[in-house]
From TrEMBL, chain A:
GO molecular function per UniProt: serine-type endopeptidase activity
Name of the protein: Serine protease
Residues making up the signal peptide according to the UniProt record: none
Ranges where the PDZ domain occurs: 283-356
Automatic annotation (TrEMBL), chain B:
Annotated family: Belongs to the peptidase S1C family.
PANTHER family xrefs: PEPTIDASE S12 (PTHR43343), PROTEASE DO-LIKE 8, CHLOROPLASTIC (PTHR43343:SF3)
Source organism, top-level taxon: Bacteria
Designated name of the protein: PDZ domain-containing protein
Keyword Repeat carried by entry: no
Keywords linked to the UniProt accession: Hydrolase, Protease
Organism, as annotated: Planctopirus hydrillae
Amino acid sequence: MKHHALHLQKLLQSSAWFSRNGIFRSGLAWLMSICFLLGGPQLLPAADDEMIAEVQPKLVKIFGAGGLRNLYSYNTGFLISSEGHIATIWNHVLDQNTVTVILHDGRRYEGKVLGAEPGLDLAIVKIEETQLEHFEIGDPSSGSTFPLAAPGTRIVAFSNMFKVATGDEPVSVIQGVIAARTKLPTRRGAYESSFPGEVYVIDAITNNPGAGGGIVTTVDGRLLGMIGKEVKNADLNTWVNYAIPISHLQQAMTEIMTGNFRSSKNTDDEKKTAGRVPLFHSTDFGIVMLPNVVPRTPAYVDRILPGSAAEVAGLKPNDLILFVGDELVQSCGEFLDQIGRLESGGKVKLIVRRENVLITSELPIPRKSRPPAKPLR
Amino acid sequence: MNLLLPWPLRVFRASIAALGLVITASFSMALAQTETVVAEQNAAAPTQKELELAEERVFRLATSLIAPSIVRIETVGGLDEVDGILAVNGSTTGVIVGSDGWIVTSAFNFISKPTSILITLPDGRKFPAKLTATDTLRMLALLKIDASELPTPIIAPPESVEVGAWALALGRSLSPDQPSVSIGVISAKERVWGKAIQTDAKVSPVNYGGPLIDLEGRMTGLLVPLSPQSQTVSAGFEWYDSGIGFAIPAADVMQALPRMQAGENLRPGLMGISFAGNDLSGDAPVVERVRFQSPASAAGILVNDVIVGADGIPIARLGNLKHVLGRKYAGDQLRLKILRKNEPLEVTIPLVAEIPPWDEATAGFLLKRNSLSTNAESEPEKLIVRAVFPNSPAMSGGLLAGDEILAIDGESVATADSLRKLLDRRKPGDQPRFTLRRQNQNNQPEEVQVSITLKGQPFPVPGELPAVANEKPLAEGENVPKAKGRFLEKLAVNGREYWGYAPASATGQQPHGLIVWLHPSGNSMEAAVLKSLKVECDRRQIMLVGPKAEGKGWTPEDVDFVKALVEHLQSEYPIDPGRIVVMGQTDSTKLASFLVFKDPAIYRGAILVGGPTAGQPPERDPAARLHLNLTIPEGSRSADGLKKLVESLKKQKSAISTIFVSGDGSEFPDGTWSEQIGIWIDQIDRF
């Protein structure tokens, strides 16, 4: 049996090694030995009663604005202090600054919006009460951090989706796993923007009306993330179930609770506005593109200006530009957009497709401090 | 030691509770050494929590085993919207299936027809890819990149895939670093007509093209959107993340691979049979039609054959057959066991991707119609040419009205039916030699040979056609005429009301055409229709009948009413079964065409005034020679749509003719339209 365990240990440690080398078979027999122990016809209960009982009192039901505009008027929230600080999603439900908060045991309070960080979709609501069960958020500066969970990690989600829970009923619990950790592209203009950082994509239908502000925990009840809004993945045209990792929210939560918070929203807006004025155009590098006629015109090079950086780098007419740095550009418009965002100085890496080969080249970015004289087409 | 032991999977899958103490003890030891997360290790049985954590690790291990074979696909260029849904333009997923650069993925990922496809390997290398072949039966696409020594996954043997077993759906679209994981179980096998494994793991554009794997990290399937109801590439997309997801069994993917690697596009296999009934779980597969020039017809399948076995599998109902056929490609063989008049018979049918539309080869002449005499002693039929269409191949070839047709290419013909069968074997462009008996200048019969170059559909309807002279009506009392002229009656079987017009000739035995007029909703238009068509009815021996809708408009039950009415009229009047047509205007054209499409054995054609057909007409073949006449009111809002419809029908080699009229389509047309309709009905039994 010792023999068995040692190999299992080796296997677990070396999974990275054999995937890198593509040698699957060596580990397979041992993996099989785990599989037959675990393969069951049904999901095992992902969490025990004890854990659920411990987490439930830390969740609250929030009722606020929304009903008039045919929008749902309820959120979920979770307690992050014994004095009634509640973290929740920043959305239209909080529009009137006061909300009704109902605890797991049915106690009812008026809650005030203490502060919000729209950039993180985060708001903190305060109710007047003491000795409440809560999650410890801790101070990130003093080394209190939340671990990141890997894809495949089992999770439990708590939320008042569709306001199924009323009065002293606990919120709904669903189980799943972390599907991925990734940034969410959202369709610009068509949907509310969502959290811009890396999120947990959940392999369960967690993001429903009212679920925002709920939580995702590990099976042993450790807080992993706050359930986000209902958004569509712009690239794939599908609804996304995601949660914002608590580690991204920790600092803002602490700052709002301690009254040291200054929203980053305005500065963000400034940055965005600044970003919209393109500093560079492809011609700054000597690249003339084929006319951008339809939304998905691929980024084909029409001609290269003589003596330009592009000529020196060996770019040629009919090259299809595919990447600017590590960003895929799917159209001429996207290419010009990426070029426009470049900062003065340094180099930019371009990957082009010529015939059936990908060619990487580096072009120096000229020093420039004023916007181009001519506006972009 | 585990290597030598059979894998006692079933025992343990039966119930997690069946885990023996010994095994759990050894397992907890394994955990103690490997899993530092488990803080307070109990030396005895593992807790539920420990088992769960260990299980999580297996999920991750299985994923990491296959991860090096899961690639990211990016596309550039292409359409924005396909089939009414926004085309996916994000990254998608593929699986390496050949170490020398073969990647298989879902055809869904290329519905936007991108101009450039890029592969990013898990190690970060990027390659341009070529789309080598597609599989429109299983909705797969095969890509090739110029790389070698790539890691390929282990393929799960089909027998190892069990309903209820864990299944992980993996994708690369969300993050290039780690595959996304959705966990579920195998919900069913052989779904979507035998093609797919069903899983409740979440399947969506996030992982279309990615693998479905088992806990050993073996590939059980390739994730694709599928729908049992539809065959388009995006069908099934609407079920994304619903708990109903599909994967093509990995073994089937590998089997299709060599043909696709050779650049062959794989398509669903067709045999060319349609069946009576459409209840997949009820009706037995009784052959209703065998498509002309189809593999089934070449294999000798006949109408009323019953299929009782396919590829060695017993077949009782249509669904059974669809299940066997549903997984076959064009080029595959289908072994059918059939019962013909209770005699068992075996045939092998090579399936094809397409059955070409039958293009009826036409010469452009009419035969004299024999009277519909009930007299068995009637003289033997003679095939006398009644009329030759102006500017037709028959006229160019030198056929004359009055000629008697004796033989085609040396094969003698005795009846109109046998003449048709002989001509049906010819294709447009063929030049059959007609042997004719013709009166010479001295009024002596002599044999003449002419060659006629046959033409395909749509064959032009002649602008002029002499009418058949009316026989002298029978004397009163000789054969009691039922109703002459305009009449209003009720059908005995159901009491439903209809009006009609029988020309005086309908009291005789000359065969008459029949127009069944289905009025638009709320307006019987009786007077206008009769006024427009009465002269033609008299001149060209056509009966007119107008059943009346009950209440607001036509209902599905009226299909049977019309059928009963036609049968009734056939018993009362000399109606030519080859010239019964249904006519509708604006909102009744759909019902009119529906009737004709459904029962081509009863109705030979449809006249559609200012309205579309009910879907696509059935494939034309010698057993269903549908003729369509579309009247397009130039001022109608539907005119453009109808013109498009005509164009598409022409491509399908339909016998379609078009009449343009002025107005917006609310009035019933008359004038020259009526004359053209008269000629059209008169020439429907053309050769």
